Amino acid sequence: MSDAKKINVEELLAKVPTGLLIGDTWRDASDGETFTVENPATGETIATLASATSEDAIAALDAACAVQAEWARTSSRERSEILRRAFDLINERAEEFATLMTLEMGKPIAEARGEVKYGNEFMRWFSEEAVRSYGRHGQTPEGSHRMLTVRKPVGPCLLITPWNFPLAMATRKVGPAIAAGCVMVLKPARLTPLTSQYFAQTMLDAGLPAGVLNVVSGASASAISNPIMEDDRLRKVSFTGSTPVGQQLLKKAADKVLRTSMELGGNAPFIIFEDADLDLAVEGAMGAKMRNIGEACTAANRFLVHESIAEEFAQRFAAKIKELTLGNGLDEDVTVGPLVESKARDSVAALVDEAVKEGATVLTGGAAGEGAGYFYQPTVLVDVAHNAQILKEEIFGPVAPIITFTTEEEAIKLANDTEFGLASYLFTEDYSRMFRVSDQLEYGLLGFNSGVISNAAAPFGGVKQSGMGHEGGIEGIDEYTQLQYIGIRDPYAGR
Ligand code: NAP
Prior knowledge:
Aldehyde Dehydrogenase, Chain A, domain 1; six-stranded mixed β-sheet; about 20% strand; binds NADP nicotinamide-adenine-dinucleotide phosphate; Aldehyde Dehydrogenase, Chain A, domain 2; 2 domains; about 40% helix; 20 strands; alpha/beta
């Protein structure tokens, strides 16, 4: 796509609202405070935004609650058409969204374009699902009542998103919330608010009524989320981010018995059996590990390879990784961008250094990249100790540790040996093994002979400490509805 050259970064940044979206107005913070956004490829400040206070957070909730009843009464067709118009507008602005994401988050521009496509599919999918939210009708077994089950919007929602997929993590929540008839306060990640700010403006441009979506970016997440979560009017929190923050929010949600959706961290095993198609496995490994610079909750974190093919796989995988180009994601030739901040790069470097001290061998990479940005070289490690820290933590960087196994039973045991349960990957040509192993894997998602499986039409969600609830699929809208059962005295009862 050559459109990239048409984007003037300064003009684009000037289009992005820098205030807080409360009702129909982009406004300054109540105390006038601001915070800055950096380009991780250069370390330069690219924008200064209003930083929401607790007072602003409540003003955003006020604006949302003021329109909840009216919004819930709109027809599903009306909400569906707003989503569809938003889908078309995001498509028109695709190159702008992609450029913004590369600027604030660092991902290569081709991947940012991929995220626009993927993220926008949630708008299209939920525009289609909006008119298909069904209830149920039946009769009690005794014949005493007719049973009517209706779905209603859950009510005002707080949506908290992470920095790694700035558009998709917002559309995955905002799309179904609109489809269901909920009003929202969106709190984007401090490191990547620009995409959400522009997305919210795009929603207004698509005809979303003022107050339905409010955006409070800011330097202090808890100053924004705490007062909202303590307010009796809030009905739901949908959070995507790390497990420790999710745990804190769940504790807080318990005080008000809030509905919650939690999309949390992962530690994905990538299992390759001796009968796997190695070409497919290498291609899958590149996607599962290197997409988004390894900064994905679904990123392969541990490569478990049968001992008979481990060396061949490692050599072929390392050879592919050496072909990658590290640099500023705005450069069309770059295939691996910087990590999101210096802290992220340092923590990846520390995990690799520790693994090497514990006996791991570096096949390629193994050090920070050059330049002012937060670069880390794509890295493959072999001979990793089975108890190494790098296998226990979410690496969140372009580093692939490889360990070996001997039996199917051992592979399953190693794969499940984590508190996380989000994505897993399985490569084998034996389909009966696929079913046997998938039955035993404690994961919400399984990629079979595929390294990238996320799709707006599929339910995305983890088990164990990777979270609860689903985004996408026909299930995604249920997270924003509540059931009401109406028992109607049967006119023939007792006659
Ligand atoms: P994070 O530190 O947990 O932050 C996520 C969001 O929560 C940000 O908006 C952050 O705001 C906010 N936050 C932080 N502390 C908070 C608090 N005390 N109260 C309320 N909100 C708070 O996670 P991250 O580093 O942005 O994202 C990476 C993590 O997200 C990884 O663990 C990854 O696996 C997970 N993730 C999961 C999925 C999934 O679908 N399961 C998808 C993507 C990412 P600030 O930015 O202002 O701190």
